[in-house]
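Shipment paperwork, digital attachment
Item: protein structure file
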Amino acid sequence: MYYLSQNNAGMQELSTFCKQNAIKMLSFANRCGALTTTKKGAIHALPTITDIDQLSKID
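Attachment content:
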């Protein structure tokens, strides 16, 4: 949802946007999930964009 909102994907073009950006969205979600498992709690465990960007530099 974050990726969609940051890229202004509206309802009309949502299907096309998802098809064109599926790999990027899934990679972003996968990094978020991986980082979330490294901390305790719910909200506290959510990674920041900086955390996600740093993890993507490792790829």
